[in-house]
Amino acid sequence: MEFLKGIQKSNEVRDREVKALSQHVGQLAEEVVIIKRNQDKLLSDFQENPAHNSSHTSVHIDEVSC
User: How far does the chain reach from its first CA to its final CA, in angstroms?
Assistant: First the structure.
């Protein structure tokens, strides 16, 4: 009889953990939807920095001294 009570207790703990994990997965799914929506908005609002000038030459550093 004690054996069955132990199994029942283990099942109850497992069920609570599964429920908690299901809630977390649901929350993550909602967050993903929000991030995807915001990503589309951010990409459509893109503006190039007016101070950026492509005529500037790039600088290459070969060595750094300490």
Answer: 74
How many Å separate Cα 20 from the centre of its chain? 19
Ramachandran region, residue 49 (left: φ > 0; alpha: ψ -120 to 50; beta: rest): beta
DSSP string covering the chain: -HHHHHHHHHHHHHHHHHHHHHHHHHHHHHHHHHHHHHHHHHHHT----TT--TTSPP--------
One-letter amino acid of 3: F
pTM for the model stands at: 0.53
Q: How far apart are CA 9 and CA 30, in angstroms?
A: 32
Residue 37: per-residue pLDDT? 87
What's the pLDDT at 15?
Answer: 97
